[in-house]
Amino acid sequence: MTLISGAWAQDLAQDSAQEQSSTGIAALESFVDQVDSLTADFQQELWSADRQLLETAFGTLSLQRPNRFLWSYRTPIEQLVVADGEHLWMYDVELEQATVTPLTDDAATASPAMLLSGDRAVRDSFDIRDDFVLDDRDWVRLTPKSSNTDFRSVLIGFSGGLPVQLELVDGLDRTTSIQFSEIEVNERLDDSIFEFQPPAGVDVIGDED
Which one, 66, 87, 102, 186, has the greatest CB density within 10 A? Predict the structure, then answer.
């Protein structure tokens, strides 16, 4: 997986931009306008500020506009992140703990998952900083307008008009890089995919109301 976050990547992007015209912003606009659903496998890597690999995770993603998605982590721990259109659930199977927040919360609205699955208005939560071509991908860099988020910036890499990589940089300069594969778009997804009911005995933090 290619990791391009950081100042050194900005230099590469500037050099690349001198030779190629990026369509990263156009790719983002087209994706939001034309893709109603998406399924994919993903590999997620967490890198330290000094580029040391800290953790690798694998799972699947399903999303359906508006405002519904399911991130299902298989390894190293089993975890679900579910948006049902009104609430955001995070369920840790091993800890038997679930947290719930309304999707109107600033942190939820300004998340990359909501950027990919939300309606056009969700983009009001982000500022577009730049776009460029690198590694045969069209990249767009965004920053959340809200300060109440877990990350400082997000890069989205498009290939063939589809998002194939996300890179999120948090306040500790750690980078979460997510690579998508086996992408399918605009297939009919059952609404039940995005429904979550905490299993019996699970500790629930937060309020659904």
Answer: 87
Residue with tokens 């297939």: 187
Return the closest-CA partner of residue 122 out of 85, 157, 77. 85
Q: Indicate the Cα dihedral angle 153, 129, 119, 46, nearest 10°.
A: -20
Q: In which band, very low, low, confident or very high, does the pLDDT at 13 lie, cut at 50, 70 and 90?
A: very low
What structural domains does the chain harbor?
A: 7-196 (2.50.20.10)
Q: Determine the Cα–Cα distance for residues 122 and 115; give it in Å rounded to an integer.
A: 6
Query: In sequence order, what are the beta bridge partners of 155?
Result: 141, 167
- Gap between the Cα atoms of 17 and 92, Å rounded: 42
Which among 77, 86, 81, 83 has a CA at the least distance from the CA of 55?
77
Over the stretch 105-148, which tens digit does the pLDDT of each residue have? 766 766 778 888 877 666 678 888 888 998 889 999 999 888 88
Cα gap 15→155, rounded to integer Å: 17
Query: Can you list the positions of beta strands (E) in the chain?
Result: 37-47, 53-64, 68-75, 79-84, 87-92, 97-102, 126-134, 137-144, 151-159, 162-170, 175-185, 203-206
Kindly state the tokens that stand for 26.
């156009």
Claim: this prediction has a pTM higher than 0.70: yes
